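User: For a benchmark we're assembling, each entry needs the component sequences followed by a predicted structure for the full assembly. Here are entry 17's components. Please fill in the structure.
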Amino acid sequence: MNKSLKLSLKFLAASFVVLAGVTLAFSSKIYLPEAPTPTSSGSDDIAFPTNPEFKDGVFTGTARGHNRGDLTVEVTIADGIITEVVVVSHTETKPLTDEAIVGIPAAIVAQNTYDVDETYAGVTVTSKAIKTAVFNALKSALYNYKSGTYQGTARGHNRGDLTVEVTVDKDIITAVNVLSHTETTPLADEALIGIPAAIVAANSYEIDNTYAGATVTSNAIKTAVKNALNSARQK
Amino acid sequence: MRKLFENWIFPVISFFMFVSLMILLLIDFPSGSISIKSFAAYTLSVFPYTLMLTGMFIVARPRFIEKHIGMPKMYEIHAIMTVVAFFTAFINIALFFRGFDQMFRNPATIFGYIGFLGIFFGMLTGMLSLSKMFIGKNKFLNKLKNEVLNREVMLWIHRISGIVSVFGVYAQQASLPFLRNNIPYFTLLTVYTVLIMGFYFVWKIRTTFDKRYRVTKIYQATPSLWVLEFAPINGKIKNYEPGEYFFIRFKKGKITREAHPFSTSSAITSTHKDSIEFMIKEAGDWTRSLANIKEGDIATLEGAYGEFYPHHVQETEDPFVLMGGGIGLTPNLSILRSEIDKKSQRKIILIWALSYKQDMFMLDELESYKKVNPNFEYHIIFSNEKVEGYEFGFISTEFLKKANVSEVFDNATFFICGPDIMMESTRKVLLSNKVNDSRIRVDDFGF
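Assistant: Structure for entry 17:
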């Protein structure tokens, strides 16, 4: 066998031994998940987005714990990442639940999601309550809209489609551009410029502005922006 | 024992870094608190990182280790470690891949992918154009390496990829608050990173601002062989042992700025006390560009590297058999010149295997050595052309008998340098004649 290949195989074997050794040495800290934990952990009003975008700040969430009492957590978000989770109050049974109360928040911070596999044997309800409380805190940390650029379409004046492109950054509408339309120019020109500017200024598509002689165009732009924002919606 | 050291010194460094980091990372976790998936994520990030860090240490050519294991072995280990780093990082990515839209979900994933791409391109450029280990005898890959890919460009991509891989993974770890806030772990990670990358950058700066040499002599000794002599612009020449090699990097002249390794043909002797001589065979773009070099051009010489002629061998009185294949004469000539300068009277047999008559030169010099040392003899054998007065064929037991080498099989030290196939076959001939392996010194230059 080629010498280099032989050495490569030896190195692979040694790497395996080292990795297995480390795994064995820390095996007491590792567990194999028995069953997947519920992803929404008791949520009933919203489906959590797959790639959530959070506001910075400290947010509080509560869930029902093991002894029919509330378990409350404080979740700190910095730069859009979960940086700290603290269980601030609970009625769980000590010291049985102590490890879960430290371990679950640590796992949530490590993986930057409430949806972690970690569950402590014997304290499943507490484990789930922490995740649910964090989930509830994160709901209030969500921006209404996910940052990005979105397109929306509405029916315009001449039975043609009017398409806009809306840019959102942390719930602020930073730009609205009409990409295509079949409106009558120059009649609709003022509305095509003025309505997008008014939406950006008001940070909302719900504005009173309309342009005389171009009411249908004005409303079509607002509806197209609304449709675009619907696809940006996180909550 | 020596072989064990050669093969395992760098892996052990890497494993040590990995294990120490994992201890600090995991020690504070409560019992049963880490899912197997999280554990895999930690392990498969830290492990390739320590391999890449060790790889950066290797490419800085630490001379204190190179002297013991040699450059080819260092680069071989470097290549193997990079491949393993790539595969472990790839497993990590595959386990946690949630779609392309999730690749940029936060700084940690972005830096993680940057690190992975660094490893990937580092491996790819190394495999395709720098290392001969993976290309082997494959005609297509050899053609790609020699005729399509520009070695200098690939080398730069390789270097930058290595730095990017380390930067990417370190930044990924720094982006994760739970790792950043684990002070012992993050401190150790930073210490390892700063030490190794610092060592690398210091080496890089030193090679850039290394002592400058001026070309004092350049001529073609044969149609395909250049002789170059360098003298320092200021001060004395670097100290080096016979048979060692330097990386020559031209700073001025119509030739690329890439450094290339060449054995010295000179030794620090009365004739070369202020200059260093190299014999270089035309074999590629760079060596062909030597035609553009003229006296007065400036270069740096990085080194010296190699351990072809160690002190414990120099100090014996045993016979020497110097065996050079073509340009492989060079380090042997360096040893020979050193011995002649010392007025050594030890038995020295020089075996020089050449392809064609036109490759033969410097016979006058070799003849003159016989007067200084009556125990010196040389024998030339041609493999591709019959030349009157010389043997024809390859180095064999019969030829070695005719060259009186068989008389010293028991007690001589053998120095072999030349093309891979010549070194391999010569070594086999010696071993078949019961020459002790520890007495055979091979100057493997294939990296």
